[in-house]
Amino acid sequence: MSMNKASRGPSHVPDPVAGNKKRQKKAGNKTIDSRTEVQQGAQEQKLVFDFNNMNRAMKHLAYYAHSSMRQGNQIEVPIPYTIMGFDMPVFLSFEDIYEFINLQEISANCILVYMRYLEELCRINGQAEKFVFVSPSLISPVRTDTEDAGRRERADNLLSFLRDAPKERLYLVPHNRGRHWVLGVIDPWEDLVIYFDPLREKKRDDFTELMNMALADWKITTGEGIRRRRDCKTKFSNRPCPLQEGSVECGYFILGENGVNM
């Protein structure tokens, strides 16, 4: 259902039906996460939480993983149709939680679960109609070494969220452009895409093409394109956000920008 971890380097997004960020194998009726496999004769590294040097807010999560989970175990989190376009669960492993708490590279599954939390917060605060969260696994490229043949399909996925967009609704779209997370905030009626990049690079490549393709189709389906000049193009606005200093923090910055933009 998700892509591999996001920092820098090549990216891969498996089939959304897969359910795990890593390839899974079947052994009878038991699902095995491939990350738990070890070569014969090799010892699996034991992951231990350092509770003494841990952020207070993280201790509750760490204690839960420490007391209720084992390495290779997973917890199931339901993801609603408003994020995925259909109801389905996402699975967080013990390793996902360990990496998140220790500020290592995080997967799209972690971002999906955080978006699930933000969506629930919007409903509680009466803002459910103002924000829509779009799953990164629906719009991020499968490969980055060649022209992505799936861009048309990904643009259609995004268009399915935009199709009946009321005015003043914003769409928050985390995007993995190749082991690096960025965030787009779309205002379709203003024909505007706000862009947040923790590396502050101006290079948008696939993201720009994807947004232009989806919004051009949206303007056609809504008739909005007829009311605009033919040469009117989608506006992109690079907004400053905190600058990451290392190579693995981009996912955390995108989580923070998701919350700030609410």
Structure at a glance:
This protein is of the alpha/beta class and 262 residues long. The chain has helices spanning 56-68, 81-84, 94-101, 108-124, 136-139, 151-162, 206-222, 250-260; strands at residues 24-27, 30-33, 74-79, 88-93, 131-133, 170-176, 181-187, 192-196, 235-239.
- What's the pLDDT, averaged over the residues? 77
Summing up helix and strand content along with how strands pair, one would put the structural category as: alpha/beta
Total E-strand runs: 9
Give the overall shape, derived from the CA principal axes: elongated
Strand content: 15-25%
How much helix, percentage-wise, in residues? 25-40%
Strands ordered across the widest β-sheet: 5-6-7-8-9
Query: What is the end-to-end distance?
Result: 25 Å
Question: Rg to the nearest angstrom?
Answer: 19 Å
H/E series, N to C?
Answer: EEHEHEHHEHHEEEHEH
- Main sheet? 5 strands, mixed
Unreliable spans: 1-43
Helix count? 8
Keywords: Hydrolase, Protease
GO molecular function, one term: cysteine-type peptidase activity
Domain Ubiquitin-like protease family profile: 106-255
Organism: Ficus carica (Common fig)
